[in-house]
Amino acid sequence: MNAVLQAEDNPQRPLFERLATNADALRATTAEQRVAKIRRLLAAILGVRPAILEAGRKELRLSPTDLDAQLLMVKAEAEFICKHLAAWMAPQPVQGSLMTLGKRSYIQYEPKGVVLHVSTWNAPIAEAFVPGMGAIAAGCAFVLKPSELAPHSAQVLADIVASVFKDDEFAVVQGGADVATDLLKLPFNHFFYIGGHAVGRIILRAAAEHFATVTLEMGGKNPVVIDASADLAEAGRKIAWGRLANAGQVCVAPDYALVQASVADAFVTELAQAMRAMYDAAGTGFQESADLPRIVNRRHFDRIKALLDDALAKGARVELGGHTDAEDLYIEPTILSHVTEDMRIMQEEVFGPILCVLPYTTREAAIATIRRRPKPLSSYVFAKDRDAIDWFLAHTTSGSTVVNHNLIQSGTNPYLPFGGVNASGRGRLGGFATFQECSNARSVVEDEYPAGDPNLMFPPYSDKYKQMIGKMLAKEIKLPDAAINLINGIIKTTSVFSRAKH
Ligand code: NAD
Fold first, then answer.
1. N or C: more exposed end of the chain, with fewer CB within 10 A?
2. Helix or strand or coil: residue 411?
3. Dihedral sign, CA of 130, 134, 136, 140?
4. Residue 313 belongs to what H/E stretch?
5. Which of these, 20, 48, 80, lies nearest to 163 by C-alpha position?
6. Rounded CA gap, 41 and 35, in Å?
7. Mutate which of 12, 174, 201, 251 to test ligand 1's pocket (most atoms within 8 Å of Cβ)?
8. Is there an atom of ligand 1 within 6 Å of 111 CB?
9. b (16+ CB within 10 A) / e for 167-198
10. What pTM was computed for the model?
């Protein structure tokens, strides 16, 4: 098919071709050049802070402080990359082995090429730039498709990127599912996706067509387990903050609480008190709080309200809140008790400011409730009893876990890669992890100082070679790494001397 016809069949193809053509030049860039780009990008982001705050206010009625926290995440990520990039790009020597004596083995990270990111709306700036900066660091060309559910942020993202990059290096393509569908037909080398499960499957299928690698950051039902030994007041405060931040529209937010039955009522009291103290200290109602965001749109509002209505119809009891206001896209901070697993609210991710509290009598029963659901992105346990913490860690799985807190694992420590497991995601983001997702970890062996007879292993096989393989198969090879390093050193030295002689 000629280039003109190709351009007509997919409106995004010309952009893709520009990026693919430039990929080789980007591959050749130095750490210094990439760092300079990331610094320019960070300056551009911080330079439009008022526009970012305004977009977040319009979309979610987010407080400037919440948005500044998101900017801080981006800034920390940029600074971390700038500090470490030269070391990540350098060859990473690995330990030699008996079978690679005399050889130099190392990993060289090289850019995968052209990367697409289909992003979401709940923290659009950080969600765009954490993958974006990792791709620049790795020397890739990058296309960002922001969520149409955060259109003001999408425009700000497009303006920032256009002020720093030409669109053969980093481009923002705005639009909805139709635009994403066109982009997904193109042979990108790597896909990032942040969003829900249904589209996650679409991304995986598209990646299969191109044998592209994929980083999926999805959500799910994150459990928080509260053992009777926990400090209930502290747990209540921390979980109130974790559940209500961004009005519950946070992928790592605790989705439901499993509380040891003997302390369930006391925990609900502490949680309700903490929610009021944070968002209704004056007693004028949660809706008046300047810090409580709104639901992103009517579709999500209706979705959350339907979960609440279904739970109430099936017997759930409101311990706090329960009111909604469609005009204002407002859902009151809500605690539900008497929740059962047949309720939709226990089957779907809530992604809103409602916490279900379910008492448990045995640890086994609590774990069984978690295991009946897909593996969560995050899980939390509150306990003072070390045995309870260890038991929980040993019997559950999740992308991340925090003990005696929540949310603090995300975007806070670039040494701690972030991601999910199975239905909650694959791959990792943050710091070196994002760089790795955008890189091919190329294994290189250099036959620098050949040891022994280089023809030994070639056919026709000698008896010596057959015996050697036979011995190695028969016995456990106990040569310590230090011995291998010593032998390699001797081979190298001998080789250097003999070369010098000739
Ligand atoms: P969304 O509706 O914005 O969709 C995400 C992206 O998918 C958008 O860019 C959208 O245009 C695109 N899209 C929609 N339909 C598509 C289609 N048919 N084909 C191709 N692309 C399509 O986001 P959402 O799904 O409402 O996001 C919320 C979910 O994201 C929650 O489950 C949350 O837990 C999860 N999330 C996860 C993380 C994480 O880091 N793990 C972070 C934030 C949100």
1. C
2. coil
3. negative
4. helix 298-313
5. 48
6. 10
7. 251
8. no
9. bbbbbbbebeeebbebbbebebbbbbbbbeee
10. 0.95
The answer, yes or no, to whether any atom of ligand 1 lies below 6 A from the CB of 360, is no
Decide: 139 and 157 in contact? Cβ < 8 Å.
no
CA pair distance 389, 14, nearest whole angstrom: 54
Helices 124-138 and 151-164 cross at an angle (nearest 10°) of: 30
- What b-and-e string marks burial along 11-44, b requiring 16 or more CB atoms within 10 Å of the CB? ebbebbbbbbebbeebeebebeebbebbeebbeb
470 CA distance to ligand 1 centroid (A)?
55
Ligand 1, pocket-test mutation among 174, 188, 194, 209, most atoms within 8 A of CB? 194
Write out the two tokens for 183: 């982009």
Length of the chain: 502
Which ligand 1 atom sits nearest the alpha carbon of residue 149? 3
Which residue matches tokens 């977009």? 55
Q: Establish whether residue 195 lines the binding site of ligand 1, counting it when its CB lies within 6 angstroms of any ligand atom.
A: yes
pLDDT at 448 over 90: no
Q: Measure 123 CA to ligand 1 centroid, in angstroms.
A: 11
pLDDT band at 456 (very low <50, low <70, confident <90, very high): confident
Cα(222) to centroid of ligand 1, in Å?
A: 17
For residue 197, give the ligand 1 atom closest to its CA. Answer: 32
- For the Cβ of 121 lying below 6 angstroms from any atom of ligand 1, the answer is yes
What is the number of the ligand 1 atom nearest to the C-alpha of 251?
34
The verdict on whether omega for the bond into residue 460 sits within 30 degrees of 0, i.e. cis, is yes
Confidence at 8, pLDDT banded by 50, 70, 90: low
Q: What are the pLDDT digits (tens) for 271-291? A: 999 999 999 999 999 999 999
86 pLDDT higher than 70: yes
Give the active site residues. Answer: 217, 251
Query: Can you tell me the distance from the alpha carbon of 67 to that of 125, in angstroms, rounded to the nearest whole number?
Result: 9
The 3 state secondary structure assigned to 344-387 is HHHCCCCCCCEEEEEEECCHHHHHHHHHCCCCCCEEEEECCCHH
